From TrEMBL:
Matches recorded under InterPro entries: E3_ubiquitin-ligase_SINA (IPR052088), Znf_RING/FYVE/PHD (IPR013083), Znf_SIAH (IPR013010)
Species, as recorded: Aegilops tauschii subsp. strangulata
Lineage, broadest ranks: Eukaryota, Viridiplantae, Streptophyta, Embryophyta, Tracheophyta
GO biological process: protein ubiquitination
Residue stretches spanning the membrane: none
Keyword terms, alphabetized: Metal-binding, Zinc, Zinc-finger
Protein name: SIAH-type domain-containing protein
Length: 245
C-alpha cells in the first residue's frame, strides 16, 4: 500500500531521508540505506520542498478551486464540499455536489424534496417513486417506494460523497383500521454517493393484501432520530428543612 508523505520529515546523521510513517518501523534506529545506528533529525529542506508543491483537488471538475500541498490533499478530499454524488436514475449520468444534485433532480426528473426536522413524524403518500428529504441545510436522504408483485417495498438512504458507518436511525410505520394491520420498522440508515445506483434491499415491506384500498390516499409515517440529541440537564432541587417538625 502506498504511503503518503507527511510532516515532519526526518533524516539520519548522514542525510538519508525517511518518511514519518516509516520512521517508527526502523529497528534500533538503523538507517534503511546505510544501516548505521543514528539519531534522526528533521530534514528542513525536504519539508520546504513538500510545502512548495501544490496540487489541485480531485474534485476540481465539480467546482473545487482549492490548491493544496501534497500532504494536505487526502484530508481535504475526505470533507470536500464539492465531492460528487450521483443521480439515482439508471439512465442518467449526472454527477455533482449535493446541492447541484437536488437542483438537477427537481428540474430534470421532477422528484419532490421535503424539508423535515429530526424526530418529527412526517406522513408521506404511499405512492411509487423517489422523494428527497432534507434536514435544514444538513443531511440529504432519499426515500424510495417501489411497487413490487408482493406489495410496497420501501427504503431510505443518506446521500453523501463518502460512505460512512451509519449514524442515523429511522422509524417507519403503517397502520390501517380497514385491514386491521399495523407494522413498524426501526433501522439504521445506510449512506451512499449513489455511484452504483440505489442500494439493494428494502427496510420495510408492506404486503399488498394488507394495504387499504378504499379510494383514499394511503399514508406512511416516517421520522429520523437526531444522532446528537441535546440532553436537558435538570437543575437540582434544594429542599429546605421544615422547622418545628
Amino acid at each position: 500500500m502506498r504511503t503518503r508523505l507527511i510532516l515532519p520529515s526526518p533524516q539520519c546523521s548522514v542525510g538519508h531521508f525517511v518518511c514519518s510513517s516509516c520512521r517508527p518501523k526502523l529497528v534500533r534506529n538503523k538507517c534503511h540505506l546505510c544501516s548505521a545506528e543514528t539519531t534522526f533529525k528533521r530534514c528542513l529542506g525536504m519539508e520546504r520542498l513538500m510545502e512548495s508543491v501544490t496540487v489541485a483537488c480531485s474534485n476540481a471538475n465539480y467546482g473545487c478551486a482549492q490548491k493544496l500541498t501534497y500532504y494536505q490533499r487526502e484530508e481535504h478530499e475526505d470533507a470536500c464540499p464539492s465531492a460528487p454524488c450521483f443521480c439515482p436514475a439508471s439512465s442518467c449520468s449526472f454527477a455533482g455536489p449535493i446541492d447541484a444534485l437536488l437542483e438537477h433532480s427537481a428540474s430534470q426528473h421532477k422528484w419532490p424534496c421535503t424539508t423535515i426536522k429530526y424526530s418529527e413524524d412526517v406522513k408521506f403518500c404511499l405512492e411509487p417513486g423517489l422523494h428527497f428529504l432534507r434536514i435544514k441545510d444538513r443531511e440529504i436522504f432519499l426515500l424510495n417506494v417501489a411497487l413490487e408483485p408482493f406489495g410496497h417495498a420501501i427504503s431510505v438512504v443518506c446521500i453523501q460523497p463518502k460512505a460512512t458507518n451509519s449514524k442515523f436511525k429511522c422509524r417507519m410505520s403503517y397502520g390501517s383500521f380497514l385491514t386491521d394491520y399495523y407494522q413498524i420498522s426501526v433501522y439504521k440508515i445506510r449512506s451512499s454517493s449513489l455511484s452504483d445506483g440505489l442500494p439493494k434491499g428494502y427496510n420495510l415491506i408492506l404486503p399488498k393484501d394488507e394495504i387499504a384500498n378504499n379510494g383514499k390516499v394511503t399514508l406512511l409515517t416516517f421520522s429520523i432520530d437526531d444522532p446528537n440529541p441535546k440532553v436537558k440537564v435538570r437543575e437540582p432541587i434544594c429542599l429546605k428543612p421544615v422547622r418545628g417538625v
